[in-house]
Amino acid sequence: MKGKRGIELSMNFIVVLIISIVVFAFGIRFIYKLVSDTNDFAGMTFDQLDDAISSLICGSSDRVCITGDQKEVRRDQIAVFGIKIMNVLDSQNFNIIVTRPSPGGYTKNNKEIFGDKIDWKPKIRSVYIASNEEMKVGVGIYVPKTAVSGDYIFNVDIRSQDGSPYSNMQKFYVNVP
After folding, report:
1. pTM for this structure?
2. What digits encode the pLDDT tens for the residues 79-97?
């Protein structure tokens, strides 16, 4: 009788141990996936950027508007800005060109920032918009760990298919604390 109780206790211990290891492994996998997904900037597609933009608040007469022209982004993080384009012309392709001015920003002490490693996508993107339709497009900004604290500037130029400017140049700013 004593031997049977010892075997039952050992079997219960083994079952609990196996279940604990499986739960622990899934927890580690979940944390790893959560951390790796937030920083996979290079693998982001245009559709993922478009889906990540929040709702745009624009005036009804604005041809082009940008969600919140300023965002605070911590190092090794990604921010997504949204651009809404309202086509009041004939159906056509529009080119969205995102560039950096020189200097690319200013530190907290008002010193110019040159040659930073901040990455963004898309740099150039062409979208087709039918007449009297609108499209929302996302622009992702990745701030590397080596970024200097300060305000970084981005220019957004929307051009119609003939190359002429569709609206005034828009700007948005990334603040790195």
Report:
1. 0.67
2. 888 888 989 899 999 999 9
For CA atoms 101, 102, 107, 110, give the dihedral sign: negative
The Cα 172–Cα 153 span in angstroms is: 6
| pLDDT greater than 60 at residue 125 | yes
Query: What pLDDT score was predicted for residue 54?
Result: 46
pLDDT of 34:
63
Q: What is the pLDDT of residue 100?
A: 93
Place of tokens 């933009």: 53
Q: Phi then psi for 139, rounded to 5 degrees? A: -125, 120
* Residue 92 CB neighbours (<10 A): 15
Q: Rounded to whole angstroms, how far apart are CA atoms 91 and 171?
A: 25
How many whole angstroms separate alpha carbon 54 and alpha carbon 112? Answer: 31
93, 130 Cβ separation under 8 angstroms: no
- From residue 44, give the alpha-carbon distance in Å to each of 8, 24, 37, 52, 161: 52, 29, 10, 11, 26
